[in-house]
Amino acid sequence: MNTSTSNLLTSKWITILQEYEKVKAGQSTNFKTVDQLCKAHYVHRKDIRKYYERWMKSGKDRSSLLPQKRGPKVGKYKLLSKEEERTIIKIHRRLGANEFEIFHLIKNNFKTHPSVSTIYRTFKRYPLNKARKEKIKRYVKRYPGELLHADTYYLNKSIMQDRKRYYLFGIIDDYSRLVYVEAIRTITAANVTKAFFHSVQYFLAHGFEPESIMTDNGAEFTAYTSQKAKKTHFFETMINIVGIKHIYTRPYHPQTNGKIERFWRIISTECLDHLNFGQTIDSLNNEINSFIYHYNYERRHGSLDYQTPLDRLTAVTELLK
User: What is residue 130's predicted lDDT score, i.e. its pLDDT?
Assistant: First the structure.
């Protein structure tokens, strides 16, 4: 990378960090607080702190502000794709095969045939034995409606007729995995709240009432600037009125809301990737509703001992009779 390109990529953060130092020292003529600096440059104070620490550790070297490479580091071992890893783990779980047996079973089925050592390392990355399973904190709620997981999902512009950005609002019941999805035009708090109350009606029709909901800290779900803003936030206000408890995920940790995150991958691979181009909002909702019918009433889930969400709900209803 030449010097001009490097300067271009780092100029924004150099300006922000230099001004940040002045604000902290009380010498800035442009901003009184860090919040004002963040609003002016459309950045979060956590990002400023991250880049500032990186900059200081390098002795204020400009190159430390360049975008850093992500993903696994290149080493002497060949990396398997996620699909290949899942295939190996599936064989290991269902057949009880060890690494030597799997080495022969998958012959000529992978792009690059992995060695026995690579297969063993794949085992180690997934908690399959008792000792590793104990380290994972898995939970399933005791009854329907005890906890719902909600999130929003960005749709690809290319599938829409008007080439505009649309979104999905999704919410899934922790106990039964019953899910509700709705396509929305924008992810404002008002639109998300409207979709949420549509989902409440959907769950009530299935015989249970939501008690609590877990979301991330997105602007459509809450406000984190102050307690006053949080109390007056549209989504927060509406769920407080109906008496639903709001639980938040840990920042930058989507695994906390893993059930809805896993659902997004399912609907992407089994539905969205197969849609024709030129969808309207109505045709998109029709396609999604067809998939949700299959997901809730016909598709058997490994996490539910190969029951459907409807089977899971029916079993609870029979116990209550």
Answer: 66
